[in-house]
Specification:
Blueprint: H1 3-19, E1 21-22, E2 32-39, E3 46-52, E4 57-63, E5 72-75, E6 80-90, E7 93-103, E8 110-116, E9 125-131, E10 138-139, E11 143-146, H2 158-165
Parallel strand pairs: 1-4, 2-8
Antiparallel strand pairs: 2-5, 3-4, 3-6, 6-7, 7-11, 8-9, 9-10
Length: about 180
Amino acid sequence: MTIRMIAAGVGGALWLAGCATTYSEPPPQARTASVELIRLPGSAPAMLVFDDAKTCTGARVAIPSNTPVRPVRVLADVPTTVAANHARVNGNGVYRCAVAVSFVPEAGHRYRLRSQYPEGEHTCRAALTESTDGTTWRPVVARYRQWSGQATCPVLTDADIGRLRDRTHSPDGATTLNDLKDLM
């Protein structure tokens, strides 16, 4: 591990420490779902959970950078926003990028937040999948938003939340009946 990599990790941790506190999971008796951060080679993003899903405010660190990944429990049936927050050395610079993903988790479901920060690019990406059995995974109806530091992300509207609650999406998760209303 190079000095630059270590400096980026420390800098990323300090950057996170300034803008987020530790996430507290719901009580054991609450209706919950679990979200697991999938780290791809070459990156070690932190996972954040927001107090306010609509505006990405009140960031809480659920999984810090460079720590083991574990499933994180979140409340079910309410709008939830999680983010993968990257700090990476690329060439001579340290790049920071975060993608917030808003969705309405279903009780007992498992979710995977897979985040990418491709080499040579200054944009990170994320994809959220869900499973009821832990073996078959499918895309989730979700809203993806860029998020940066202590700034808020574009507001999640009541109409957006309605679309996220729509459980009638196609098997591939790409289309909902609401998306097809213009064709009817």
